[in-house]
C-alpha cells in the first residue's frame, strides 16, 4: 500500500480524503463514506472486500490498521469507531447533525432528532422534505433537500432541476399514489393490482389491470376464458392459453352439466382430435381466431405453426390497439 500522497481519493465517493477510515482489511475510505455505511446503513463491513469490520480507525494520515496503537484514541462505542483525536471525533458528530440550513448557524443549535428538524423546517420556513426520499435514500440530514409546496410537487412529478439523474417518483395511475422508483411501483402493481400470467410468460411485463374485471376482459379478448357454470365466478383458473386447453377443461369440468347430446358432441370432439394429424387436408382458417361454433369448429382444432404465427400477430395488434384505446383500466408504463 502506498504512503500518504497528495492525491488520495476515496475509492467510493472519489473525493480527496482528508480523514481516513480503515479497518482490519486495510482498505482505507474517507470518513464520510465509512460513517454513511456504519451510522446510516447499519453496514459494518468493508465496501471494497466486504470483510466484516468490527472496529475502524479514523486518522488524519493513511495508516496500517494492525500497526497503529489506539491507546490514546477516543472511542464511539456504539459503532466502534476509534478517533485519533478530538477534532476528528467532532467532525464525525458534525456529520450526523440535524441542522437548519436556512437559519444563521449562530441562531439555532442543531436539533436532537431529524423529526425535530423536519417540524422546524415546516413551521418556520414552510419547507418540506420528500417523504419518499426520506424512506429510501440513506444520506446525511445536511445532504437532504427541502422544498416549498410547489417545488415538492415538481420533485415528485419530474425530479429536481439541478439533478438530472432523478426523474421524479413514478405514479400508480390506479391509486394515484407515487412510489420511490419503478421497482417499487412494479412491486405495488403486482401485489395490489393484476397482470396476465400468459402475457408475462410471453415477455409482456408492463401491462397491468386495476381490477380483476379488466383482467377477465383481457382473458376473454386475448386468451381463452371459460365462463360456464361455476367458472363464471372463478378467477385465474378458468383462463387458458389455447383453445385446446379450454376444450379439454370444458370436457373434464362441465361435461356432466351438459345434456346427453351435448356430452356426446363433446366426446366426439375429443375423438376428432386424434385424427387431426394431417393438417394439409384442412384449408387454413383464414383471418382471426374465429371462435364461433359450427362449421368452423373442425378447422379450428387444427392449429398449425402458421396459425400460431397468425394468432400471435393477432394478439399483438389487438394488444397495441387496446393499449392505445384504454388508458384508464389497463396501462403501460416506461
Ligand atoms: Zn468517500
Ligand atoms: Zn476491505
Ligand atoms: Zn431554520
Ligand atoms: Zn423524493
Ligand atoms: Zn395502485
Ligand atoms: Zn394476456
Ligand atoms: Zn369452466
TrEMBL record:
Per the record, the pathway is: Protein modification; protein ubiquitination
Provide the RING-type domain boundaries.
10-50
Q: Quote the catalytic activity from the record.
A: S-ubiquitinyl-[E2 ubiquitin-conjugating enzyme]-L-cysteine + [acceptor protein]-L-lysine = [E2 ubiquitin-conjugating enzyme]-L-cysteine + N(6)-ubiquitinyl-[acceptor protein]-L-lysine
Coiled-coil regions listed: none
PANTHER family for this protein: E3 UBIQUITIN-PROTEIN LIGASE ZNF598, ZINC FINGER PROTEIN 598
Residue ranges of the region described as Disordered: 274-334
Family from the record? Belongs to the ZNF598/HEL2 family.
Protein's organism: Capitella teleta
Q: Which Pfam families match?
A: RING_ZNF598
Q: What is this protein called?
A: RING-type E3 ubiquitin transferase
EC class (word): transferase
Q: Where is the composition biased (Basic and acidic residues)?
A: 294-304, 312-328
- Would you say which domain of life the source belongs to? Eukaryota
Q: What is its EC number?
A: 2.3.2.27
Amino acid at each position: 500500500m502506498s504512503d500518504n500522497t497528495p492525491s488520495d481519493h476515496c475509492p467510493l465517493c472519489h473525493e480527496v480524503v482528508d480523514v481516513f477510515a480503515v479497518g482490519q482489511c486495510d482498505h482505507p475510505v474517507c470518513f464520510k463514506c465509512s460513517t454513511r455505511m456504519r451510522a446510516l446503513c447499519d453496514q459494518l463491513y468493508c465496501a471494497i472486500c466486504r470483510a466484516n469490520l468490527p472496529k475502524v480507525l479514523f486518522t488524519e494520515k493513511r495508516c496500517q490498521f494492525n500497526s497503529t496503537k489506539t491507546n490514546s484514541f477516543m472511542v464511539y462505542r456504539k459503532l466502534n469507531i476509534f478517533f485519533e483525536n478530538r477534532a476528528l471525533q467532532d467532525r464525525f458528530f458534525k456529520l450526523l447533525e440535524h441542522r437548519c440550513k436556512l437559519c444563521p448557524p449562530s441562531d439555532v443549535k442543531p436539533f436532537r432528532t431529524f423529526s425535530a428538524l423536519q417540524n422546524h423546517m415546516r413551521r418556520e420556513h414552510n419547507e418540506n422534505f420528500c417523504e419518499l426520499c426520506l424512506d429510501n435514500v440513506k444520506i446525511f440530514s445536511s445532504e437532504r433537500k427541502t422544498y416549498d409546496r410547489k417545488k415538492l410537487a415538481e420533485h415528485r412529478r419530474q425530479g429536481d432541476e439541478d439533478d438530472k439523474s432523478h426523474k421524479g417518483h413514478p405514479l400508480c395511475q390506479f391509486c394515484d399514489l407515487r412510489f420511490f422508483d419503478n421497482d417499487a411501483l412494479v412491486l405495488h402493481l403486482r401485489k395490489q393490482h393484476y397482470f396476465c400470467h400468459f402475457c408475462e410468460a410471453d415477455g409482456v411485463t408492463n401491462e397491468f389491470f386495476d381490477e380483476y374485471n379488466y383482467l377477465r376482459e383481457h382473458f376473454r379478448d386475448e386468451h381463452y376464458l371459460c365462463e360456464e357454470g361455476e367458472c363464471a365466478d372463478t378467477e385465474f383458473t378458468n383462463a387458458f392459453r389455447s383453445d385446446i386447453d379450454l376444450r379439454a377443461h370444458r370436457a373434464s369440468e362441465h361435461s356432466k352439466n351438459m345434456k346427453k347430446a351435448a356430452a356426446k358432441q363433446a366426446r366426439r370432439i375429443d375423438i376428432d382430435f386424434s385424427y387431426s394429424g394431417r393438417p394439409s387436408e384442412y384449408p387454413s382458417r383464414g383471418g382471426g381466431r374465429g371462435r364461433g361454433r359450427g362449421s368452423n369448429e373442425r378447422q379450428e382444432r387444427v392449429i398449425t405453426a402458421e396459425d400460431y404465427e397468425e394468432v400471435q400477430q393477432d394478439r399483438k395488434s389487438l394488444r397495441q390497439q387496446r393499449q392505445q384505446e384504454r388508458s384508464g383500466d389497463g396501462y403501460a408504463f416506461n
